[in-house]
């Protein structure tokens, strides 16, 4: 998976999941359960080509594009300290 494909996946998933906008990088990072204070930093690095996108990330994104939802649904996209 390339950075451009990941960016396109964020756009598709945001529309498909009823947000009427691309997923924010931080939302995508939380959907993929990436660690760190800002999981969007990893997405940013993937999309810019700074960090290669590994197989598990590619598989998870492909599964979401095929209809899988993160555990917790859209609530999984929210920061853990947000109601």
List keywords for this structure.
globular; mainly alpha; 4 helices; 83 residues; single chain
Structural account:
The protein is an all-alpha fold. It has one domain (3-67). 49% of the residues lie in helices and 0% in strands. The protein is built from 4 helices and no strands. It has helices at residues 3-16, 25-31, 40-48, 55-65. The termini are far apart. The mean pLDDT is 93.
List the helices and strands and how they pair.
Elements (H helix, E strand, L loop, with lengths): L2 H14 L8 H7 L8 H9 L6 H11 L18
Helix pairs in contact: 1-3, 1-4, 2-3
Spatial shape: globular
Number of helices: 4
What is the beta-strand fraction? under 5%
How do the SSEs run, as a string of H and E? HHHH
Give a short account of the largest sheet.
none
Radius of gyration: 12 Å
Low-confidence stretches: none
Total discrete domains: 1
Report the mean per-residue pLDDT as an integer.
93
Helix and strand content put the structural class at: mainly alpha
N/C terminus separation: 33 Å
Number of DSSP strands?
Answer: 0
Query: What fraction, in percent, of the residue positions are helical?
Result: 40-55%
What's this model, at a glance?
This protein has 83 residues and is mainly α. The chain has helices at 3-16, 25-31, 40-48, 55-65.
């Amino acid at each position: 998976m390339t950075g451009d494909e990941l960016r396109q996946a964020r756009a598709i998933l945001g529309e498909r999941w009823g947000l009427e906008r691309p997923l924010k990088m931080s939302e995508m990072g939380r959907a993929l359960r990436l660690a760190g204070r800002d999981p969007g930093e990893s997405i940013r690095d993937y999309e810019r080509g700074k960090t290669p996108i590994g197989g598990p990330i590619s598989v998870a994104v492909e599964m979401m594009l095929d209809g899988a939802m993160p555990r917790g649904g859209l609530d999984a996209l929210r920061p853990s300290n947000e109601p």
